[in-house]
Every structure is written in structure tokens, then in C-alpha cells.
């Protein structure tokens, strides 16, 4: 009887822990894809970043919203949009010179995500990744991408190397549970 009780408890524990996994959906990012970058900025001047390509060939989706993970107080998202892959719209002053499909937006296939951020005071501002809220075929998903960013407002040099080790220690499922899934 004890062996049966332990076996049932083990099965329930595995089933419950599996249920708590948030399904990142068909557009989930590959595991162990960790990147970061640093941007120099002026006070209240939006700059955009993103080397993130979102979407897969042949899949129609709606990108509902994009948020930063654990942003430093004072770092604000000004705009989020999509541009065709390979467009030279990233790591520039915002707005880019190319047309931007602002989020929420429907798209098909891979697109490059442009995220414009700004800070209103001198200093260094970080974010530990990006979370995407999207739908495919009427079903909602939430996906975490470990793309860190450091924005240096009149702070030189803009060294962002410490972000990589922080991102490597992040638990995507924990981040998604903290931020909630729509």
C-alpha cells in the first residue's frame, strides 16, 4: 500500500509540475539563445533596439504586446513595431526611417521587432529580456526571449557584458509566471 501511495504521489507531482509549464507556442524562441546589447542615448531621446526576429515562415500571427523583463526604474518603452527582416531600422534614433507596423499588429512569417525605449535622467538602465504576447489561430501564447539591453544616458562607457551572465541564470518559466499570461 505504501509503495502504491508513493507511486501515485510521484505521478501527481510530475503531472502537476508539467501543468504549471506555460506553453510558449509555435513561435517560442530556441532555448539557450541569449544576447544583449548596449545603447548610448540622450535624456528623453528614444533609441530603438532589437536583433529579435519573430515569426516563422507560413505562420500567421497577431503580436498583441511586447514588454521588457525587470526594467530598471525609469526605463520606458515608447513604441513597439515590426519591420521586414534585414531592414536597417535597429540601434538608431527613433523613429526609424522605414515604415513601422506598430503593435498590436497581424503578420505572417518572420519579422524584425523594433522596440523604442527612453529614459528621462542620466544613468544606466537595464532590461533582462523581452516577453511577447501573441495569438496564432485564435489561441493566446506568451514567449520569453532573453535579449537584454542596457541604455546608457550620458553614462560612458556603455558596458553591457554583465547582462549575459544574468540572462543565462534566468528561468523562462519563472519569468512568464511573474508577468502572467494573457
Structure description:
A hairpin with a 2-residue loop joins strand 9 (123-136) and strand 10. The strands form two sheets. Strands 1-10-9-4-7 form a five-stranded mixed β-sheet. Residues 1-19 have low confidence and may be disordered. It has one domain (23-179). It contains three helices and ten strands, in the order αββββββββββαα. The longest helix has 18 residues, at 2-19. The chain is globular and about 45 Å long. The chain is α+β, with helices and mostly antiparallel strands.
Give the topology.
Elements: H1 2-19, E1 35-41, E2 47-49, E3 53-54, E4 60-68, E5 76-83, E6 101-102, E7 105-108, E8 111-118, E9 123-136, E10 139-153, H2 161-168, H3 172-179
Parallel strand pairs: 1-10
Antiparallel strand pairs: 2-8, 3-8, 4-7, 4-9, 5-6, 5-8, 9-10
Could you give a short description of this structure?
With 182 residues, the chain is α+β, with helices and mostly antiparallel strands.
Beta-strand residue fraction: 35-45%
The residue ranges in which pLDDT falls below 50 over 5 or more consecutive positions are 1-19
Q: Helical percent range? A: 10-25%
Helix and strand pattern: HEEEEEEEEEEHH
Number of domains: 1
Q: Kindly report the average pLDDT value.
A: 82
Radius of gyration: 19 Å
Structural class: alpha+beta
Number of helices: 3
* Amino-to-carboxy terminus distance: 43 Å
Please count the beta strands (DSSP E, at least 2 residues each): 10
* Major sheet size, sense and barrel closure: 5 strands, mixed
Q: In what order do the strands lie side by side in the largest sheet?
A: 1-10-9-4-7
| Bulk shape | globular
Amino acid at each position: 500500500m505504501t509503495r502504491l501511495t508513493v507511486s501515485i504521489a510521484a505521478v501527481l507531482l510530475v503531472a502537476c509540475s508539467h501543468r504549471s509549464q506555460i506553453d510558449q507556442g509555435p513561435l517560442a524562441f530556441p532555448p539557450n539563445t541569449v544576447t544583449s546589447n548596449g545603447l548610448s542615448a540622450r535624456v528623453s531621446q528614444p533609441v530603438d533596439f532589437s536583433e529579435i526576429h519573430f515569426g516563422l515562415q507560413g505562420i500567421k500571427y497577431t503580436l498583441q504586446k511586447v514588454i521588457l523583463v525587470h526594467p530598471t526604474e525609469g526605463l520606458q518603452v515608447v513604441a513597439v513595431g515590426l519591420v521586414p527582416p534585414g531592414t536597417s531600422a535597429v540601434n538608431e534614433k527613433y523613429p526609424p526611417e522605414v515604415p513601422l507596423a506598430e503593435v498590436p499588429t497581424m503578420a505572417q512569417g518572420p519579422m524584425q521587432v523594433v522596440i523604442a525605449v527612453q529614459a528621462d535622467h542620466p544613468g544606466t538602465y537595464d532590461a533582462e529580456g523581452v516577453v511577447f504576447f501573441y495569438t496564432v489561430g485564435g489561441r493566446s501564447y506568451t514567449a520569453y526571449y532573453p535579449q537584454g539591453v542596457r541604455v546608457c544616458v550620458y553614462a560612458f562607457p556603455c558596458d553591457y557584458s554583465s547582462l549575459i551572465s544574468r540572462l543565462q541564470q534566468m528561468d523562462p518559466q519563472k519569468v512568464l509566471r511573474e508577468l502572467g499570461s494573457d
